[in-house]
Amino acid sequence: MVLEKLGESLKDTLAKIAKAVFVDDTLINELVKDIQRALLQADVNVKFVFNLTNRIKERISKEQAPPGLSKKEQLVNIVYEELVQFLGGENAELIIDETKTPFKIMLVGLFGSGKTTTCGKLAKYYAKRGKRVALVGLDVWRPAAMDQLEQVGKTAGVPVFLNKKEKNPQTIYREYEKEYGKYDVLIVDTAGRDALNDELITEIKDVSELVKPHETLLVISSDIGQTAQTQAQAFHDACGVRGVIATKMDGTAKAGGALTACAVTGAPIKFIGIGEKQDDLERFNPKGFVGRLLGMGDLEALLEKARLAVSEDEAKDLEKRLLRGEFNLVDLYEQMQAMRKMGPLGKVVEMIPGFGQLKMPKEALAVQEEKLTRWKYVMDSCTKEELEDPDSIDAKRIERIAAGSGCGTGEVRELLKQYKQAKKLIKAFKASSPDKMMKKFERGGLGIKRGAAPLF
């Protein structure tokens, strides 16, 4: 998880509130100190940390709990709201203007920030959302920059316009101007330097005047920590940068410094890079991000991943069959496939409200990932009849399926048990109201107990 240590520290802090009998000054002071310690360990600026915790203390002392909220719930809510505000509040999404064809996004940044790789991630992000995307390579400074962009474009499945022999970025851009109108989104990769200097500023301004981008984004490596503020502010003032993409968010303790530093500039973070794969780019939503840190989940991001994993027609078809009480191994298989499309199980689980607080061991999640793979082998060895009518699978068929899939008979039986449990859960959902279902879920009445590994 991004900023995993910070998230664990904040969850522990909220757990203290939940266990407390009274909300008094001692608890509040202890809470504030825990938050300060957690943020400072994440490399957040000391001044920012004390400003934040002072606001939290002030609100707790002055505000009365609204109707329907206990004092403890209000305390958690204040911490959540202030952390969201701390990271930029209602961060506006980078919306593609359909009337501007193509919508031009220019990426700028220093050497080593991951700018060219991010071009490919951003291209994949919009291509998955149905946009026609193309990349333009204008980095004529860094050796092999054009080759790298060509490769990331191929991986993302989008065309790349470049000229490896030309050393003038304006000439390269003009060379393909007649082609750009065929695309919805044009992502322009520009040259970087070791530091922001007059030469780089002049080049970016010249390219910008020619390209006339609708959005200029600074790609910044989050491992630079608090110095991100200086860099973001300098690019914002010099080049009119309107947003930041923070890369390497998954592998550094300094990410907290980069996130909060950019939030106070005029260039808020729009996207974060959370891994090395092209799908590891997320729109930065402070509400969802803080929700994940506190173990509250990020339902908006989860639903977006689900929409991308399953088409609307497939979802409606499954819904109709489930309402009729139909559920077989084919449905289970499709659900597993959709789950895998949504990304690693650990990242999906932390988006589910409530699951982030269960502190499931990474080993348990890794085992579930392996099970999904093994169960796929089992289903691939089943006949059409067996997939559509799992109850027909007897002991003899189990042995045949196990031999054909290279799995043990125990794994086949475990899959069948999983199918029966899922079918039982779906029948209960169909027969019960949502409130009754949640009570059954809480009690473990459907064979699911708190702390258990997720269904899939």
Description:
Helix 2 packs antiparallel against helix 3 and helix 9 packs parallel to helix 10. The protein folds into three domains: 83 residues, SRP54, nucleotide-binding domain (Four Helix Bundle (Hemerythrin (Met), subunit A)); 193 residues, P-loop containing nucleotide triphosphate hydrolases (Rossmann fold); 143 residues, Orthogonal Bundle (434 Repressor (Amino-terminal Domain)), CATH 1.10.260.30. 55% of the residues lie in helices and 9% in strands. An eight-stranded mixed beta sheet has the order 3-2-4-1-5-6-7-8, sandwiched between helices. With 456 residues, the protein is an alpha/beta fold. It is flat and about 75 Å long. It contains 20 helices and eight strands. The C terminus is likely disordered. Helix 10 links the parallel strand 6 and strand 7.
What are the defining features of this structure?
single chain, 456 residues, alpha/beta, Four Helix Bundle (Hemerythrin (Met), subunit A), Rossmann fold, 434 Repressor (Amino-terminal Domain), 3 domains, eight-stranded mixed sheet, 20 helices, disordered C terminus
